[in-house]
Amino acid sequence: MRILITGAAGFIGSGLATRLIETTDGADILGIDSLNDYYDPMIKEYRLGQIGAAAAAHPSSSWEFVKGNIADKELVDGIFKRFRPEIVVNLAAQAGVRYSITNPDAYIESNIVGFYNILEACRHSYDGGSTGVKHLVYASSSSVYGSNQKVPYSTDDRVDNPVSLYAATKKSNELMAHAYSKLYDIPSTGLRFFTVYGPAGRPDMAYFGFTDKLLRGQTIDIFNYGNCRRDFTYIDDIVEGIIRVINKAPQRSTGEDGLPVPPYAVYNIGNSSPENLLDFVRTLQEELVSAGVLPEDFDFEAHTRLVPMQPGDVPVTYADTSALERDFGFRPSTPLRQGLARFAQWYKQFYM
């Protein structure tokens, strides 16, 4: 099986590549990542090192890394022609809701132009009667639900009220994938991730930034006065969900008009258990103390500040994963405290 993973040095991409190498005999995996400096590239190099170590320990699978940007159409086309992927997992994207408010160009380049290049390469993988890409799996986001009032969020809900450019680009990805599935019969599955966390995560995520600030004795801001609720999803659950989806592409079929019925699907991947942000931060602090990152007498209350909601944020995220359970027999289930304990242990090992 030849698998292309974009964003391979990212949090989810590296976890996926490592797991596939460790569990899939004969897998040929090519990863691409720009290694940009949106956050500290050192952690991206660390993740690549983890993938390399897994590949060295499992020689039945192969691993190749290409440094590059999926917005570079020539590069993407060249990789597809040379590697001829059977499975494409597009995880490369400019992430972050707040960053999109001040740096919109990065989102158009990566999330729109880059994804278009992937779709076009998938389309042309069938040229000349080739078997081509059997399944395109791509990252969407819980952010597409925007200001929806109904919870839990279902993939049957309308999602046409984005509150950030980031969310708008992710919804655009779903629409573009649907069009290409219809026009070119490309099996594609979008995955709406809900607040992914865990060891070696993204430093721009709240739990990571909170840890950095608390360790330096700084005050952390808790938005919406602590009344936000988030469906935190542990990284291993996300990776397991992706692997299950990879192996079951939407079925191709022909409609009454003689044209392809889009082999297209979208699923939520979330823990289905939203946590109050203030409770989340308290649990994080307790696990940081337990891991020895913070001292036992750390004054938590003195280092927190309740502040209003920020532009682009939403008060709650909550995943309805019934479709994922129905089609793949899986739902994320890692308890928050267990996941934060693993993060705290990793943080101490990596930074202290």
Which descriptors would you attach to this protein?
two-stranded parallel ribbon, globular, 15 strands, alpha/beta, 352 residues, Rossmann fold
What does this structure look like?
It is a single chain. With 352 residues, this protein is an alpha/beta fold. It has a single domain (2-194, 235-272, 317-334), classed as 3-Layer(aba) Sandwich (Rossmann fold). Helix content is 42%, strand content 16%. The protein is built from 11 helices and 15 strands. The strands form 5 sheets. It has a 7-stranded parallel beta sheet, with helices on both faces. Helix 3 (73-83) runs parallel beside helix 5 and helix 5 (104-124) runs parallel beside helix 6. The longest helix is centred in the first third of the chain and has 21 residues, at 104-124. The radius of gyration is 20 Å and the shape is globular. The model has no long low-confidence stretch (mean pLDDT 95).
